[in-house]
Amino acid sequence: MERVNDYLLQILSDGDVIVLGCSGGPDSMALMDILLKIRKNMNISIICAHVNHKLRVESDDEMVWLEKFCKKHNVIFEKMIINNYGDDNFHNEARNIRYNFFEDLVRKYNAKFIMTAHHGDDLIETILMRIVRGSTLTGYAGFNKFTLKDGYSIVRPLVYVTKEDILEYNKKHKIDYAIDKSNFSDKYTRNRYRKVVLPFLKNEDKNVHLKFLKYSNCLVDCDFYLEKETEKLFKTLYNDKYIDITKFKELDSVIQNKIINNLLKNYYEEDLILISDVHTDLIKSLVYSNRSNSSIYLPNSVKVIKSYDKLYFERETEQIDSYEIELEDYANLPNGKNIKLIDSSDVNDNFYCRLDSKDVVLPLHVRTRKSGDRMKVKGLNGSKKVKDIFIDSKVPISQRDLWPVVVDSKENIVWLPGLKKSKFDVPKNKKCDIILKYY
């Protein structure tokens, strides 16, 4: 445990405030004891952050015991009691609740560190579980000893030692702690690794946890380098919420995976545990498929859409299926765009439309497409299906249902904003009394 103490002395300074995640178990109480000993010679403040998950009959008694301990040792005690869980993944939800609670305390006390009692055996278990389950380069590293966050750092100083080291320390220094009996149940995957795999590895090398720490640090260093390289390339192929598939295919596979993983982080944040290398492979299969338009669904209603040479990531929410708006001076559309009646313009592209009120039946309406819609396209003989115009213009499938269709009161399609003009469009050099702009 001397190495833990030395490491803490390296990073701590007078005046530092530490939020210590403390369950009252042997690991966190050992870390509490080390910090209390350091406090005798250094001006540091310790905030004991305790989460009562209400999953065991002993939980309330342990909370009361820990609060008394903190009062006796002049440590600020903060608690959170959880009565209900709503997530199917209990461990993921519990972790998120704990760290949100810790972050609230960081802000409340202007703390410099969050410290948790994860030790070397925990690191081994985490790495092995990720390898078996499948993960990313970051995930395979397990967890970091030191993680710099916005305004504070998360530190796991016990990563240098094993559970056995901690129990010996507690016995030597007569440290009281609570025992969570669920840690011995074969119901949980981690416990099975702890009871079966770890003894085998330690029999091979009693300091195997340090080998895993070295492995973890190596992956973290590689990931840091790749992250810097990925950031440079990301700016060249990600634009307006989509990936340029053509440019993406030119990249090395390792960088491709990193880009996908970074995008998934944005959508999953605290739920990133739900994502594995299986999902990365699914996305890459979508990219390289021969279909121009296709999509896949990921956990938590995240949808990845391939539309021609673009790859979109979006979270599905309840959307408007159809709409119809009477067009007067201005219309704000469900797709985030607008159509506005303007006085004049010299622009003649498909984002502007000129009409003569004598040629159409007012009022005009903006609506979504209907089955069988056809439009008499300007410059063409006859009519063309709106569906085919969408396909020819490579409009993503996800955007077609909400794309505005401007019609007159006789259902004549007079304009597909941004795509095509109809035979009703008036040339710039001829009289018109209606000019519309789409933006």
What does this molecule look like?
This protein has 439 residues and is an alpha+beta fold. The protein has three domains: 2-216, Rossmann fold (3-Layer(aba) Sandwich), CATH 3.40.50; 240-315, Uridine Diphospho-n-acetylenolpyruvylglucosamine Reductase, domain 3, CATH 3.30.465.60; 324-438, Phenylalanyl-trna Synthetase, Chain B, domain 3 (Phenylalanyl-tRNA Synthetase, Chain B, domain 3, 3-Layer(bba) Sandwich), CATH 3.50.40. Helix content is 40%, strand content 20%. It is built from 14 helices and 22 strands. The chain has helices at residues 2-11, 26-39, 59-72, 90-109, 120-133, 137-140, 163-172, 189-204, 208-237, 245-249, 253-268, 277-288, 386-392, 397-400; strands spanning 17-21, 45-52, 76-81, 113-115, 146-148, 153-155, 238-239, 242-244, 293-298, 302-307, 310-315, 324-327, 330-332, 338-342, 352-355, 364-367, 374-375, 384-385, 405-407, 413-416, 420-421, 434-438. The strands form five sheets. The protein has a six-stranded mixed beta sheet, with helices on both faces. Helix 2 packs across helix 7 (163-172), helix 5 packs across helix 8 (189-204) and helix 5 crosses helix 9. It is elongated and about 95 Å long. The model has no long low-confidence stretch (mean pLDDT 90).
